[in-house]
Amino acid sequence: MATYVQLNTGAKMPILGLGTWKSPPGQVTAAVMAAIDAGYRHFDGAYAYQNEKEVGDAIQQKIKEGVVKREDLFIVSKLWSTFHERHLVKGACQKTLADLKLDYLDLYLIHWPSGFKAGEDLFPTDDKDMIVPSNTDLLQTWEAMEELVDAGLAKAIGISNFNHEQIERILNKPGLKYKPANNQIECHPYLTQEKLINYCQSKGIAVTAYSPFGSPDRPRAKLEHPLPLDDPRIKEIAAKHNKTAAQVLLRFQIQRNVIVIPKSVTPQRIVENFKVFDFELTQEEMATLLSFNRNWRMGLLSQAKTHKEYPFHAEY
Given 4, 40, 47, 49, which residue is catalytic? Predict the structure, then answer.
């Protein structure tokens, strides 16, 4: 069983990584250190998570202890939407690198296709509480991303939350220098994303699944359905393999050749989430998990739904 996915750059991206979205600064350093000790080598972060300094502290500590070398690690970060203007892209990447205390990123993604008004505020809003867009062009932003590769700041570049029409625009761009290496999207059995995953993989773009558990730590008013982690049908499959529902949800992505980044700050769960290479779901179990799809999306960014680049109006 391959424990990595080969990117279109030739680089090997570990198929399992630790997500750090919503990991509080006070807990994320210990979480990343515990993950490195447990065998994780891929860490997913972003400027917008506002915890990159602490993630960097953990990485430096483990390098200093001699547990890992920089080249053993695969570090991902993301360009926030307020930095889509061409002249802001490099500085945003350099800020992330300074916080992480690194010279380069293994992968740098455009976090959302929608550019927001530049400034200090991560989510600049108008009096109707809707996002104030920037009048930036995705293709210009992509050119600035390509320059990061040439400058040695990022080994690979990619996208996140892009629909297939937006990806197509990049792929068809005249003078395209580097294809996106990865598209990071929300994915779990209630949002299986088959069309988008098939599209990306057919174009040589690796896919990463975020919120593989349906984001249980997200405050949600009355849920119509249990979260995937609590779904009795998923627990039943887990019991057959003597595994947890979380391990089944991770294995589900791995068997689709989809990279997966569970987030946890609990050392015991961090270890548990890594124990997914010693069992295999049957074709029937995979088909059952796919059948739970109901296009239930948790990360809607609905404040940006009037934005010209809002990605979720398209079917996929």
Answer: 49
Considering the chain, what is the average pLDDT of its residues? 96
Could you tell me the two tokens for 83?
């930095």
Q: Which of 278, 239, 257 is CA-nearest to residue 16?
A: 257
DSSP string spanning 189-233?
TTB--HHHHHHHHHTT-EEEEE-TT--TTS--SS-SS--GGG-HH
CA 187 to chain centre: 10
Find where tokens 């069983």 sit.
Answer: 1
What is the spatial distance between Cα 9 and Cα 142, in angstroms, rounded to a whole number?
A: 16
14 and 4 Cβ atoms separated by less than 8 Å:
yes
Share of the chain above pLDDT 70, in %: 97
Cβ atoms 156, 148 nearer than 8 A? no
Structure token pair of residue 235: 């627990």
pLDDT per residue over 263-286, tens digit each?
A: 999 999 999 999 999 999 999 999
Q: How many residues does the chain have?
A: 316
49 is catalytic: yes
Phi, psi of 191 (to 5 degrees): -145, 80
Q: What is the pLDDT of residues 204-243, one digit of tens each?
A: 999 999 999 997 766 554 556 678 999 999 999 999 999 9
